[in-house]
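Illustration 12: NAD-dependent epimerase/dehydratase domain-containing protein.
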Amino acid sequence: MVKVLLTGGSGFIAAHIVDILLQHGFDTVVTVRSEEKGDQILKAHPNTKQKLSYVIVKDVAQDGAFDEAVKSDPPFDYVLHTASPFHFNVQDPVKDFLDPAIKGTTGILKAIKAFAPTVKRVVITSSFAAIVNPKKAPAVYDEKVWNPVTWEEAMDHSQVYRASKKAAWDFVEKEKPNFDLATINPPLVFGPVVHYLNTLEAINTSNQRFRSLVQGEMKEKLAPTGNFLWVDVRDVALAHVKAIEVSEAGGERFFVTAGYFSNKKIADAARESHPDLEAKLPPTDATDDFPANIYGFDNSKSQKVLGLEYRPLKQTVKDTIDSLLVIGV
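Figure caption equivalent — predicted structure in token form:
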């Protein structure tokens, strides 16, 4: 039986990856920060206890954090590494972001090389942040584009996350381990939250705009959209699993996006799917800040190689709001 280690098992994307790994028949071990989180995951999958277990990794930035986690009998065949911080509550760019992101990524790659020689491929959750050039956008964004941010620029809080995403490729190039690498690069990730791991206060950063919308915080004025590309979390999760199932995915980056959106488009879709929320939504004639001239995108590699078929925005809006209502909007 094929065995997979999934890091950051209680994270937004990872929670959906767990479901797909089990559906596809993989023996799955997740890393979590605490026994409580691990038990929550097991309790939510009561019929798969023979196929699902967890190990505790309290701090991914610690030296040797993953050394014991990657040791297994029977041994692991693949590793999906999703454990990396993404939030804007940055006090110390190095301590809060760069160390966990870079040390966590290189740490697990070192551990796999040293203690898990059976691993054939590592798939890492990267980001559109590793592609985007906020100073000068290309005509079309695709996997060939790299964010040009330097370490010094990364000390700027807004740039921190972007600077942490190239470390894995550098490791593989220099260390030449037995495994190959694939990365999944999504922009803003929307979609349903899993109720057993979430409160309204602790939902992922990208979904917070949905919470604000349905709580009436945008009734008077829509918040600026910011980045205009998005993807559904379930499509991102499937991309991770496909990246270990499809041999051609090795050595590739995958720009995983469903396309454009704006907060106005989300609000309009919410009005259509949940008319009972009308009193909390912005007016129908609210200004749409979607730009007339916007960069292009090319997601064709993810469709051709991984076979992804992207969910439409309306479905994601409905399902996301439904999931927020379950945890108590």
